[in-house]
Amino acid sequence: MKLIYNSKKPMDAHESGQRGELALIVVGVLLTLRTALLVLVPSALGFIGIPSELSNLIVNFGTLAVGCAAIPWILSRAPRPAWVVVWFLAVALVISMLFYGGGVALLGAFGVDLALGLIWLLVMSSISDFRSFRRLLYWGGYVILVATALQLVRTSAAEDEVGYSQFLAYVALPAALIFADAAFERHAFFNAALATAAGVMVMSTGARGPLVTIVLFVAIRGALKMRSSPRLVLLFVGGGAALLVALQYVRDSLLSWLFETLENLGLSTRVVTRLLEGTLLEDRARGALAQHTVDLIVEHPVVGLGLGNERRHVAVLMGDSGPSQWTGWYPHNVFLEVLSQFGVIVGSLILIWVAVKILRAVVATDDMDRSLTALIFVGMGLVPLLFSASYLSWPQFFALIGVCLAAQRLHTSPSALVREAK
Question: How distant is the alpha carbon of residue 125 from its chain centre?
């Protein structure tokens, strides 16, 4: 995106529109890189004696400052449905705190992340030029890759083995998705190598969810690519089948080699061990959480338990009744979480609305840049919620909703770009 600006003369409407678009894109990418910067900046500034707490403040306030610069364009561009989502959740939160209990203890568990997510939603819903966004996001992938690698090196040097770290796995996940997406378009081998490197970093943290997310993303991205050419269908399906057959013969030896390599490097072998044992997808705790949540939905099918308040009930069923234990006992599945909070009727309507918006953004659009941006955020913001995080403390989910609403705004109103440039 080319920006022409002369401070000695007033900006015309077109230049103002360009400046606003650029500001929104930069803010959107910075928010995507925020967790990586929270790893990278303290590592870099630590060499000159700056404590990590101060480094984190620098990252957060820096992102906030850039975000404030984009406020005028958010106010003028964010579509009405985006504001409806913000107000709906705000009202739901107030009602939950007033009538369902939990109050400050629950708000402290997800309040900051929810606020960040809603800001991110407004930013992403205001962007028009997703081609420029994807280009800048691609370079951000290198920042994520470097941040993850440095943290792994630091941790392995300080300890005998890098322990299980779901946080670091989700820091690395966007890089794997970004480079896997790029591999389908240009410099296939180079970008595939970068995506593989990011995937190995994810595996070395011991987290399973992000690894499953990468596999699903590649499968869906390949399916979208195959729509443009029947030959690619045969190549993708045939190549995938051949790879699966080949892996059956070398599976054990390959996993044994990975186990020894990761162990020698002092990295986590948790994922490889579970693959060798055939227990990758087994999780008794998540099964118990799901069953308890289903029971709560059956007990409160009409009005639900309120926003975030299901945590208090699940914690009691799991044997932890103290307020300090409430925050970690969420359903670990976004469908069950929404149904338990809003009841079966309202919760189902919300889930249907989200599903329709995502499908329209990914499939029913003629702009591949918007479609692929939405798909990347599906991998970052939705798939992890199927088995891991809570949407209330997962800002990436709201960024995905913002992308979907932007796609709808531009798809249903082709004149939007013209108006925003004036």
Answer: 16
Structural domain contains residue 7: no
Please give the pLDDT value at position 32: 93
Go through 280-310 and write b for each residue having 16 or more CB atoms within 10 A of its CB, e for each that does not: eeeeeeeeebbebbeebbeebeeebbbbbbb
Instruction: Report yes or no on whether pTM surpasses 0.90.
Output: no
In a domain, 6, yes or no: no
For 117-174, write each residue's pLDDT tens digit. Answer: 999 999 999 999 999 999 999 999 999 999 988 888 777 655 555 566 788 889 999 9
Percent helix / strand / coil, the chain, rounded to 5: 80, 0, 20
Distance separating alpha carbons of residues 126 and 375, to the nearest angstrom = 18
Per-residue pLDDT reduced to its tens digit, 245-266: 666 666 667 777 777 777 776 6
Domain-located, residue 3: no
| Host domain of residue 262 | 13-421
Please give the single-letter amino acid code of residue 280.
L
**Residue 394: inside a domain:** yes
Count of domains in the chain?
1
Cβ-based neighbour number of residue 87 at 10 Å: 11
Task: Give DSSP secondary structure letters for 308-374.
Answer: TTHHHHHHHHTT--SHHHHTT---S-HHHHHHHHH-HHHHHHHHHHHHHHHHHHHTS-S-HHHHHHH
Nearest 5°: the CA angle 246, 193, 282 is: 60
**Measured distance CA(335)–CA(382) in Å, rounded:** 11
